[in-house]
């Protein structure tokens, strides 16, 4: 029996979501009369080593995936599970996206000390986030809030809030769900207030292009609607030359609102994209509909460019 070696970062979130994917794949394999063993190989990435520094200052795309991709190309590992948010838009020669599993809740959420909602946070409350996209939209909605930079894994961010450094923090719902910490969430931010990061809540599974056997197993795990909507968001981001540290958000859904559909390939997608200044003074948003994810992503990017998105992004990039 083949043992599939899965590379993973060492963070609790990475190991947890990798473990969940392995459980799903084992179940799927069995349903199709296949049997595989899986083993996890931990890999330290550059992004993990510099977590204490402001990532936007260090820069570089794919900070969390480079070492993992090299191990895959070298044959040390066979596949890897990434948060879609952290996945670069261009994969290296020889590697492909094997599956995009069904997306979890894409919304940002608030964890506050007193258990309040965003609207009920006291005037001038100190809120921690490490995302320019979140700070932009938060300041636009509540200009009185003081936004402070917070880094680290989600467990250490929650600890910093409990220790009194912040009255609240903003995180991705999906990460907390995967950790089984959903009960910590005190309110959900509607996508109208905080448009999520591109691919938020979705995972991407990468493997070698030449591994036909694994690609077959992964194809059974692919969710067509998630793959298409996320592709539209990612095309939008790459059209604006965005990495993960830019004040850009995007969210795509099927027009009928269904999260998944067996005939997902034909359904019309609605994509909304945003670009904002980190201080929240400007938040530009545009939407469009279409069936082709790539042209839809490009269309929304063009609409935002026509509104002056490049100027905002140029200021952020310095
Ligand atoms: N930026 C870090 C990151 N990358 C993926 C997640 C978890 C959520 C997801 O899978 O989209 C998080 C944490 C967060 O943004 O709160």
What this model shows, in words?
The chain is an alpha/beta fold and 318 residues long. The protein is built from eleven helices and 13 strands. It has a five-stranded mixed β-sheet with strand order 2-1-3-10-4, with helices on both faces. Strands 7-6-8-5-9 form a five-stranded mixed β-sheet, with helices on both faces. The protein has a three-stranded antiparallel β-sheet with strand order 11-12-13. It is globular and about 60 Å long. It comes from Paenibacillus solani.
**What spatial form do the alpha-carbon principal axes imply?**
globular
| Terminal CA distance | 53 Å
The number of helical runs is: 11
Helix/strand order, N-terminal first: EHEHHHEEEEHEHEHEEHHEEEHH
Which ions, cofactors or small ligands are bound in this entry?
ligand PBG
- Provide the CATH superfamily of the largest domain: Periplasmic binding protein-like II
Quick check: average pLDDT? 92
Low-confidence stretches: none
CATH fold assignment of the largest domain: D-Maltodextrin-Binding Protein, domain 2
Protein name: Porphobilinogen deaminase
Domain Porphobilinogen deaminase N-terminal: 4-214
Cofactor: dipyrromethane
EC number: 2.5.1.61
């Amino acid at each position: 029996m083949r043992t599939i070696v899965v590379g993973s970062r060492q963070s609790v979130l990475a190991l947890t979501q990798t473990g969940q994917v392995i459980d799903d794949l084992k179940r799927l394999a069995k349903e199709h009369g296949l049997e595989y063993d899986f083993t996890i190989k931990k890999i330290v990435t550059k992004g993990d080593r510099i977590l204490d520094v402001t990532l936007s200052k260090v820069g570089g795309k794919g900070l969390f995936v480079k070492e993992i991709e090299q191990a895959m190309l070298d044959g040390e590992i066979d596949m890897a599970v990434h948060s879609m948010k952290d996945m670069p838009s261009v994969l290296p020669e020889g590697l492909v996206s094997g599956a995009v599993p069904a997306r979890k809740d894409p919304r940002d959420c608030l964890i506050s000390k007193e258990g309040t909602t965003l609207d009920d946070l006291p005037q001038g409350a100190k809120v921690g986030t490490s995302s320019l996209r979140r700070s932009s939209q938060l300041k636009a909605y509540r200009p009185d809030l003081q936004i402070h930079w917070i880094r680290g894994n989600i467990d250490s961010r929650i600890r910093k809030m409990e220790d009194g450094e912040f009255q609240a923090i903003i995180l991705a719902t999906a990460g907390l769900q995967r950790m089984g910490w959903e009960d910590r969430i005190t309110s959900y931010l509607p996508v109208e207030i905080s448009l999520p990061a591109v691919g938020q809540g979705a995972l991407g599974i990468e493997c070698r292009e030449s591994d036909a056997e694994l690609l077959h197993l992964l194809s059974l795990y692919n969710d067509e609607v998630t793959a298409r909507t996320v592709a539209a968001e990612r095309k939008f981001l790459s059209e604006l030359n965005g990495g993960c540290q830019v004040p850009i958000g995007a969210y795509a859904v099927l027009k009928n609102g269904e999260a998944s559909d067996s005939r997902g390939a034909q359904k019309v997608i609605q994509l909304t994209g945003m670009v904002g200044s980190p201080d929240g003074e400007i938040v530009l948003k545009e939407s469009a509909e279409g069936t082709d994810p790539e042209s839809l992503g490009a269309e929304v990017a063009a609409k935002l460019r026509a509104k002056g998105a490049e100027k905002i992004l140029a200021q952020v990039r310095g």
